């Protein structure tokens, strides 16, 4: 399900027009419609997610990342710092084009899309950290 469709469904569930949501959030008219082509910033997506009480991941995929019970180990402060450090390292390399320019379909990845990429990458790193904690420390992380 596309991001626009998810937002449209959320609006329908609240009997709220897309234009009313744009007004409520201080967006220009038609700005949510631009989501059909993927043009928006992470800040806008976060504002919409906060308004509806969902995650940005839900807006972009239509699904919450729910981990199976056996991999739902809680992350501690060190784990969160490790994730932040890994994310920062990857994004620094992407932004500095250290290993060459990052591109999609032959075009450089725009700055706004890099923010979306960073958000999805953080979600993946978090999920992998939880899975790895369970796989490599099964007794320590049992509930």
UniProtKB/TrEMBL annotation:
MF term (GO), any: DNA binding
Residue ranges of domain HTH cro/C1-type in the record: 7-59
The protein, known as: XRE family transcriptional regulator
The organism's place on the tree of life at top rank: Bacteria
InterPro entries from the UniProt entry: Cro/C1-type_HTH, Lambda_DNA-bd_dom_sf
């Amino acid at each position: 399900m596309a991001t626009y469709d998810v937002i449209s469904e959320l609006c329908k569930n609240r009997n709220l027009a897309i234009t009313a949501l744009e007004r409520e959030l201080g967006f220009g008219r038609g700005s949510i419609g631009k989501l059909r082509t993927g043009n928006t910033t992470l800040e806008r997506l976060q504002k919409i997610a906060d308004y509806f009480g969902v995650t940005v991941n839900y807006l972009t995929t239509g699904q919450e990342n729910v981990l199976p019970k056996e991999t739902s180990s809680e992350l501690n402060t060190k784990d969160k710092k490790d994730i932040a450090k890994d994310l920062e390292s990857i994004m620094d390399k992407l932004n500095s084009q250290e290993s060459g320019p990052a591109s999609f379909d032959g075009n450089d990845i725009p700055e706004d899309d890099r923010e979306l990429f960073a958000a999805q990458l953080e979600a993946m790193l978090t999920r992998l950290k939880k899975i790895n904690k369970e796989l490599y420390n099964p007794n320590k992380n049992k509930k």
